[in-house]
Amino acid sequence: MINEPERKTVRAACPHDCPDTCAMLVTVEGGRAVRVAGDPAHPFTRGTLCTKVANYEQRTHSPDRIQTPLRRRTGAKGATGEARFEPISWDDALDEIAARFRALAASAEGAETIMPYSYYGTMGFVQSESMDRRFFYRLGATILERTICASAGSAGYDATIGARLGTDPERFADARLIVLWGTNTITSNVHLWPFILEAKHKGARIISIDPRRTRTADQCDEHVALLPGTDAALALGLMHVIFAEGLEDGDYLERHAVGAAELKQRAREYPPARVAEICGLTTDSIVRLAREYATTRPAVIRLNYGMQRHAGGGMAVRTVACLPAVTGAWRDPAGGALLSTSSTFPVNHNALKRPDLIPSPRPRTLNMSQLGDALTEVSDPPVRALYVYNSNPASVAPEQAKVLAGLRRDDLFTVVHEQFMTDTCDYADIVLPATTQLEHFDLHKAYGHLYLTINERSITPLHESKPNTEVFRLLAARLGFEEECFKDSDEEIARQAIDLDHPALAGITLDALRERGWMRLNVPETYAPFAAGHFPTASGKCELFNARLELQGLPAVPEFIPPRESRASAPELARRFPLALISPAAHAFLNSSFANLPKHLRQEKRPFVEINPEDAAARRIADGDRVRVSNERGSCELTAVVTTRARRGVVVSPSVWWNKLSPGNTNINQLTSQTLTDMGGGATFYDALVEIERLD
Question: Do 624 and 640 contact (CB within 8 A), yes or no?
Answer without folding.
Answer: yes
